[in-house]
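One-letter codes give the sequence; backbone shape is given numerically. An example follows:

. . .
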Amino acid sequence: MSKERRDIAVDVREFRSALPSILHQGGMRLAPVTLTVGDFVLSNVHCVERKSISDLFGSFASGRLYTQAESMCRHYKAPCLLIEFDPSKSFCLQNSSELGVEIRADSACSKLSLLTMHFPKLRILWSRGPHETLKIFKDLKMNHEEVDVEKAMEIGRNESVEALLRADKSKGGEEGEEEEDEINESAREMLLRLPGVNVHAARRIMEEVDTLAELALLSREELRKIAGPIVGQKLFTFFHQKIGAT
């Protein structure tokens, strides 16, 4: 009998959902870490980006899902997009009456089709809810080595920071710029760890504020104006939530 694989690297932001608790109750050993690529890393080949239905539509609207799929496909052999439904609601992404034979910009199914055409490696996982996701994760982990958590944490980190450094260097080469890049690298890396912030949002933020402390003091309206309505709201909620909140 093969040994059951139980280790999963989980991005710390996912602990705001019910799934990590259900995975733990189901016997999984969770490693809470900060992941640049994916939300869950099940093995050294399986990386999962989890989307609720509302997250899915928001990610399509912002273009973030394309960037996430691109990163997963670059770094993992089996990148997965998990679409997790609310078990109390219909297991249906789009009404059958809305489906057609043509690709439409306002159709979620059309957008998914285009995504899979552009990223043939990407697997779409459909889950009725977190308990079903537990079963899916167990099946995916079967016959694969346990995840290397340290490696999962490192994947994509340098890539994201270097993208910001390249953006700054393209603006001009003042003396002492390399030294400044070294000093600011940690702050830039932390910026990319904030909820909803990708490289494009980080560049916009860096054009408007000089420090993370200044960013944290901005109003909801100012954050939405700088980072966009979705990312701005996520940042405002993050900066103003109580540490001991449950």
The first strand starts at residue 7 and ends at 11.
